[in-house]
Amino acid sequence: MNDDGLSIYKNYSPTASRIILGAFIFCVCILLKNELKCFFSNKYISSVIKVLPLYILLYALYDIFVLHKDRVELDTNRATVTAYFISAIFFVSLHFCSRVKNKLNISLFFTNLIVSNAIIILTQTRAAIAIYLLLSVFYTAIVFRKSLNIKKVSMVVVLLLIFAGTSYEFLYKSRINEAITETQGYDVTKPGGSLGDRYTMWYAGLSAFKHAPMGESFQARNDFISEKIAAGAISDSITVYLTIHLHSELIEVLSLQGVIGGVLLVLIYLSLLYAGIRNKNVLLIMITLCLAGYGLTDVLFFSRESITVYLLCIAVALVTGGKEDTAEQPLPIDR
């Protein structure tokens, strides 16, 4: 195996270790759920979690105005990774704000809702902008379904629209136009820019899966794709990505682990969704949908930051989310 092959496996090794550690953390969370629930009920701990989006906003503004970065990265050097893992953090924060519905928490909830969407937009990550906006609005509708205030909802929607409209020209207009242009002019045999190359990577990965449906080594897969590139069937613009990943969780797994790996990945998503639905754990459902949704256009399990944050957020969801929180009666609104 060449150095690139060894490198890719070394990159996945820490992630695998974190996932194994995550399994033990989940077991501890289940066994010590009551004790951990008391820990997260501590007013200081819960207060810190509630204002996390505001801390992240300060860091995001530092990125933009002090470091003069075009996209918010939060010291990860990858804006997309940042958008993916802060989405899970934002849902945890929204969840803590909604556990006891008093004036302060409700105000903080909607403030965080606006702030979190603003930060996601500042990362200029197209998948995250669309998925997080839809899921956060859906989550809000579920949480406040029994006490939905049309005025407040209208104000939040208007503020989001105003921010989206005013930031469109200088933040993500070019990204949207770029996506439209690349999609319209897409040709698998020619360089296609950021989005066009993703389409080509997905095509290459599915071709490799069709060639070896039961899976193959990293080197064998790349040799097959390289032959396609040499024959002119696939653009050579994706060559640089072959030593990293194919920008789709499912396609990456199918191209390497085959049918069995693909089925296991889908089962992970479905088991988390099933646990969330069965226990009425809306937080767990939202985090899982983020994990699966972002996995359609990128590989989160490759990123040590992303998988670490998601494992911790899922653990928090297992402890603090569920039937008990759904059944909790809101405090009087004037409290």
UniProtKB/TrEMBL annotation:
The GO terms describing molecular function are: ligase activity
Q: Which InterPro entries does its entry note?
A: O-antigen_ligase-rel_domated (IPR007016), WaaL-like (IPR051533)
Q: Which domain of life is it from?
A: Bacteria
Q: Does the record's keyword annotation contain Transmembrane helix?
A: yes
Location, primary (coarse class): membrane
Q: Write out the transmembrane intervals.
A: 12-32, 44-67, 79-97, 104-121, 127-144, 153-171, 254-275, 282-302
User: What's one GO-annotated cellular component?
Assistant: membrane
Q: Specify the protein name.
A: O-antigen ligase family protein
